[in-house]
Specification:
Elements: E1 2-5, E2 8-11, H1 24-41, E3 45-47, E4 58-61, E5 66-74, E6 77-78, E7 81-84, E8 87-90, E9 94-97, E10 105-110, E11 115-120, E12 130-132, H2 151-154, H3 161-170
Parallel strand pairs: 5-10
Antiparallel strand pairs: 1-2, 3-4, 4-5, 6-7, 7-12, 8-9, 10-11
Length: 184
Amino acid sequence: MRRRLEGRTLPAGKMAAGSARRNSKRAGEVAEAAFLHKAVELGFRVTKPWGDSERYDFVVDAGRRLWRVQIKCTGALRAGGYHIQPIHFVYGKGKVAYTAEDVDVLAALVVPLDAWYVVPVEAIAAGTSLRLYPQGGCKRARFEQYREAWGLLRGDAPEAPAAAEQKSLAEDDGRIRPEPIFGM
């Protein structure tokens, strides 16, 4: 992702001298726009709930089912990986980890690399953080199987997300077409 500023193109996350620093709310909005673009490009039908009250940011219609998707993003490299906290704020309780009652999938964008992780909420232990290693550097990278695992939303097995993605992109004219609901 690149930003245009006074005729110049800046890498995502970089600001021109004298401009205000982008806040986390704005970064989340940009990540949501990037998710919407990517998911629609892959052939999913995407709906945005009205308001800001739901725990999820989007509902994705994958043909076979609807998925509640929470979007997170990160751009800071720490200890060789990118850190995501799968949490939200609950008044009176503070920060609380997402559960299957809240969302079905966490979609995390590593902004500098434009790398997506599509992680089912069941794969996230309560109260933990996610450390993502899209550039390698970790022998036991727990979430690498979910990198670009868009096939999970189509019902593909998580063991081979890259192969599922290649298969889907090779179909027809390269566009993914979800199966009709109820044989329609």
